[in-house]
Amino acid sequence: MKKNFNINGKVQQIEFSPKDTLLDLLRNNDYTEVKDGCREGSCGTCTVLLDGNPVNSCMVFAASVGEKVVTTVKGIGTNLEPHPIQKAFAEAGAVQCGYCTPGMVLSTYALLSKNNNPTEEDIKTALDGNLCRCTGYVKIIDAVKLAAEKMRNNLK
Ligand code: FES
Ligand code: FES
């Protein structure tokens, strides 16, 4: 089947199987920044934004996306022009293997879009579905605080 998808601001017609998840569709079309982990909704590494809300793309059928806007981590910033959240993760040392990072960054983006001065509890709740095997989370929480500060002060 073929449908139009709005991914990172670009509308394109994509062919996919009715059994494909959004994760399948994205990775089959070179959006490999969306990471493939448990495929059962437990790790959050496949997180994307659907109309600004974080979802596990492995748990969403591609056919059910409809007109919703899909945003991957490359949709908020690039290597040349990183988003303040992406910079904060690098500056705070919150990235080790990096596998969880796209999902962490997008969950952070969704949090800070609604609340630019989150408490530590707010941050823990927002990142609850995103697992990291490497960092022990302390530096990730530091990164979210730093990102919030940058965004509050319009810093890059
Ligand atoms: S791959 Fe989707 S939650 Fe783990
Ligand atoms: S940095 Fe390796 S899983 Fe999080």
Supply the CATH architecture of the largest domain: Roll
Give the count of structural domains.
2
Going by helix content, strand content and strand pairing, the class is alpha+beta
- Tally of extended strands? 5
- Strands of the largest sheet, in order across it? 2-1-5-3-4
Highest CATH level, the class of the largest domain: Alpha Beta
CATH topology of the largest domain: Ubiquitin-like (UB roll)
What percent of the residues sit in helical stretches (DSSP H or I)? 25-40%
Could you give the distance between the termini? 42 Å
Uncertain residue ranges: none
Shape: globular
* Mean pLDDT over the full residue set: 97
The small-molecule ligands in this entry are: FE2/S2 (inorganic) cluster
Quick recap:
With 156 residues, the chain is an alpha+beta fold. The protein has helices spanning 22-28, 84-91, 101-114, 120-126, 138-152, and strands spanning 2-7, 10-15, 47-50, 53-56, 69-71.
Explain the overall architecture.
This protein has 156 residues and is an alpha+beta fold. It folds into 2 domains: 2-75, Beta-grasp domain (Ubiquitin-like (UB roll)); 84-152, Orthogonal Bundle (DNA polymerase, domain 1), CATH 1.10.150. Helix content is 33%, strand content 15%. The longest helix has 15 residues, at 138-152. It is globular. The model has no long low-confidence stretch (mean pLDDT 97). The chain binds FE2/S2 (inorganic) cluster (2 copies). Residues 95-100, 132-135 line the site of one FE2/S2 (inorganic) cluster (FES). One FE2/S2 (inorganic) cluster binds next to loops.
